[in-house]
Each structure stands twice: as C-alpha cells, then as structure tokens.
C-alpha cells in the first residue's frame, strides 16, 4: 500500500482545469499520441529498491481520444491490475463510449447484454 | 465422444477413475466460483452503470463552465491562475480479494485549496468551474474503482466459464467414455479366456 498518482490525458483546454486539482496533465491531440503516453505512463514505476510498483493508479483519458484505440492496444493496456484506464466524456459531450465499454464488459462476462 | 489414447488395462482404469473423481470435484468448485463471481459482478455492473451516467452528466456541466471561463479570460491569465493552486492529490490503493480476483479500492486524499488565486483578474466563472470539478472528482475516483473491478471480474468470469465448460462438456464425458471402453474391453477379454478354457476342457474330455 502506498501513495499513487493520477494522470489525465486529453487536449490542452479540457484538462487544464484538472491540473488545478493536483492531477498530472498529459497533453495529447490524437489517439496515437494518447496511446503512446498511456503506455509510457503505465511503464513508469517507483518505490524503494527491490520492490517497484506503478507510479500511476488511474489514467483518465478523454473519450474522443479512446475512440480509435485498437482492441489489441486496449487489451495490453488493461491487462494488469493497475493502472485503471477510465474514459471520460470531454467538453464535446458524451459520445457513449463509456457505456459501450460497459456493455462490452457485460457481454464478455455473461455472454449477452443484460443492461437496460 | 472421444476415447482417450490409453491402454485397456486395469492400471489405466484405476488412474482414470481417480482422474474423473478429481475432475468432478474441480468442476463443482469452479461452478461455485462462477456463481459467486456472477453475483458480485451483477452488483458491481449495475452500480457502474449508474455512476457512469452520473459522471457523464456532471462532468459535462463542469466542462461547460470551464470552457465558458476559458473564453472569458486570457489564456495566460487562466494558466497563471491555475498555477497558484495548492491542491495536492494523493491516492491510496488497497486491493481486496474477491474470489481470487484482485479488486482495487481507491482512497483519495486531497489537501490544499484549488481556488487560491487573486480574484481581481479572474472571472467568476472560473471559480464555479473549478468548484464543480472539485465536486465531481470523488465521483470520478469511484467510477475508476468500480469500472476497474467490473473489468477484472469480467475477465475472471470468462476464464472460469471456459474452464467449467471444458470440464463439463469435454473432460468428464471423455473420461466416462474411456472408462466404459476399458471396462468393456476387459469384460470381453475375460469372456474370451473362459471360452478358451471351456474349449480346451471339451477337447481333453473328447480325447479321453
């Protein structure tokens, strides 16, 4: 157990506000940039010698940047218990990506979509 | 229907019988695990959906406020004002173990003030926007926790379901078939031996 950091990935104007809350802002303007920064944030470790753990526990990512992430990359990113990658709706409004993701999870677990 | 590649001997029969016993026990245990996981998953997923909907609504409003503040103020001013923030965010993570799935539990610790800039050159909208960001923040953390849990549970459920099905529809029937096959074969050999003895005995009697 210990202290972790939270990062937010998105376009400059959207995530400025979160910077004031003490989150680590990472600027990205398109999906490939976002994926790249997600991978590098995921790789960042810290802790005393011997035991190392992830530096970031949560990565918030703007939905519009998550749209074009390939399923393969997504799988790799979410394979480990930490960090949690959470899509957030941007200032453009919700795109439904988050709910679609939930639906995908349900379908995987139950075999059919039982939400709604 | 498939018969495993084994020799039809008593030895093989004994090992197969042991195997089917443990396969059945494993199947029962896994099935129980699957039920437990499913129960937990249902709880989590319903909550996840509710929280996600709430977040989308609240965050949308917060962003609108922020964009408004952004448009009313000069870029440098805004950035300058946000630099003064003394807020620090630390996240403590504990992991809970539910049916061998590690579920994260986030605990947020914040200190300091977000609004610590001068009011003279900043717009009132910025205060409102930051306030709403701050209000939604704990909800975001909750969302992260729940969604990650749901994801982990779903993955484990999928794995467990595959194992249960593999045992139920493949391993156990195959073992059963093979056991039956060996028993038949052994019975056949036994009968063959008896007939042989009877034939030999009849021949001896006929000769005498």
Would you give an account of this structure?
The complex is a heterodimer of chains A (116) and B (208). Chain A has 116 residues and is an alpha/beta fold. Chain A has one domain: ATPase, V1 complex, subunit F (Rossmann fold). Helix content of chain A is 41%, strand content 24%. A four-stranded parallel β-sheet of chain A has the order 2-1-5-6, with helices on both faces. A two-stranded antiparallel ribbon of chain A has the order 3-4. Chain A starts with a strand and ends in a 6-residue tail after the last helix. Chain B is mainly α and 208 residues long. Chain B is built from three helices and two strands, in the order ααββα. In chain B, helix 1 runs antiparallel to helix 3. At the A-B interface, strand 1, helix 1, strand 5, strand 6 and helix 5 of A face helix 1, helix 2, strand 1, strand 2 and helix 3 of B. Strand 1 of chain A pairs antiparallel with strand 1 of chain B.
Can you tag this structure with a few keywords?
heterodimer; A: 116 residues; alpha/beta; Rossmann fold; four-stranded parallel β-sheet; two-stranded antiparallel ribbon; globular; B: 208 residues; mainly alpha; Helix Hairpins; 2 strands
Quickly name the level 1 CATH class of chain B. Answer: Mainly Alpha
The CATH topology of chain B is Helix Hairpins
User: Helix share of residues of chain A?
Assistant: 40-55%
Given the structure, what is the number of helices of chain A? 5
Q: Provide the domain count of chain B.
A: 1
List low-pLDDT spans of chain B. none
Concise synopsis of the structure shown:
Chain A is an alpha/beta fold and 116 residues long.
List the helices and strands and how they pair.
The complex is a heterodimer of chains A (116) and B (208).
Chain A: E1 3-10, H1 12-19, E2 24-27, H2 31-43, E3 45-46, E4 53-54, E5 56-62, H3 63-66, H4 71-78, E6 84-88, H5 97-110
Parallel strand pairs in A: 1-2, 1-5, 5-6
Antiparallel strand pairs in A: 3-4
Chain B: H1 10-72, H2 75-83, E1 88-98, E2 101-111, H3 124-207
Antiparallel strand pairs in B: 1-2
Helix pairs in contact in B: 1-3
